Amino acid sequence: MEKEEIREFYQKNMYGIWRKGEKVSYELLGPDTKKADPKNPFEVIGGDLIRIKIEAADRKTEFIVHLHRPKVENTPLFSEGAPFIICMHPIQPIEYFLSHGYAVLVLEIGKIASDDTRHQGAFYDLYPYGEDESEQTGVLMAWAWGASKVLDAVYAGLNKEYSLNADASMVTGVSRWGKATAVCGAFDERFRVTIPTCSGAGGLALYNCISEGKSYDFSSVGGPKEYTYGQNEPLDCLQSEAERGWFNDNFLKYRDPQDIPIDQEYLPILAMDKVRYYFIIAAYTGEDWVNAPAMWECYKKASAVYEEKGLGDNIAVHFHKEGHAVIEEDVRLLIKYFERMYYGAENGLDLSELKTTAFESFV
């Protein structure tokens, strides 16, 4: 199938309609002086506040992004401006990025689309959710759109305001926002690196790969010698009242994973290009629900297609021992990978290390 046919399938049967082409501008609001709430780790604080303003037809909306400036400037490698990563929520290694010359932009993701079936937020201000499939965009796609609008603003002038290299863009998110990250990379071809993390079902976990009840030896990566996976997230959970808002109404017609004609390896395949890169992050233990082995199988299927096109090095995978998060271990490898692939840096990275996991020993 051609890429546009695959995108059409995902829009019609899973994530809803991808929107683009709006008029995007921005307003600099100055530093964020709000203090952190220790009870709310997902609260977005710090950085420079930027209002992203979007117009489509006769409708207008806006949302806030927090831009954290790099703490290392004038790096010879970044002579065309600092690379940057758009995060759908706060991630732990922000300081690591900043100290290595990267800018970080963090979305107030709940303002872009509410995480429920109400379909509220900036996206739905422009594109109200309707009865017809042409009027339906699920929340995952709406969040992906939000990251895309920030990239629009970078190209519209934020790159000059903050000395960013508009072409050196990355996007990431964890869990449900890892799903949205995978969707974003599939539909916005401008992102240079897509980094879906612990994305699970509806993200990069293959629907037809079940790890529940299977045991693995993770002693080679410092984990347990025998780890047996518990329950994986089933399809009907994605279709429950708590999560069905992530998708469009047509997704409810699938009663069994076998009924879905296209599985999730096509999300990274849609991002495949000679100037684009894919970096999958997940964890070995504690990831029963998001089905870590199914994300490894997704990588294997997608990477086979990348290899066929002579782009095998353009897709990478890294599993850390534990933690439903992007951790510093991941970011160290990600930065080396990006600087090797995008800038041609000779940094000693062995690309073969990003093509295998502890699951390689198991069938």
CATH architecture: 3-Layer(aba) Sandwich
Shape: globular
H-E order: HEEEEHEHHHEHEEEHHEHEH
- Helix count, DSSP H or I runs of 4 or more residues: 10
Main β sheet profile: 9 strands, mixed
How many discrete domains? Answer: 1
Question: How would you describe what is shown here?
Answer:
The protein is of the alpha/beta class and 363 residues long. The protein has a single domain (3-361), classed as 3-Layer(aba) Sandwich (Rossmann fold). It is built from 10 helices and 11 strands. The strands form 2 sheets. It has a 9-stranded mixed beta sheet, with helices on both faces. A two-stranded antiparallel sheet has the order 8-9. Helix 5 (139-161) crosses helix 6 (176-187). The radius of gyration is 20 Å and the shape is globular. The chain starts with a helix and ends in a 22-residue tail after the last helix. Keywords: Carbohydrate metabolism, Glycosidase, Hydrolase, Polysaccharide degradation, Serine esterase, Signal, Xylan degradation. Residues 52-309 form the 4-O-methyl-glucuronoyl methylesterase-like domain. One of its GO terms (molecular function) is hydrolase activity, acting on glycosyl bonds. This is Endo-1,4-beta-xylanase.
Provide keyphrases for this structure.
Rossmann fold, AB_hydrolase_fold, polysaccharide degradation, 21% strand, 363 residues, single chain, alpha/beta, 11 strands, carboxylic ester hydrolase activity, carbohydrate metabolism, 9-stranded mixed β-sheet, two-stranded antiparallel sheet, 10 helices
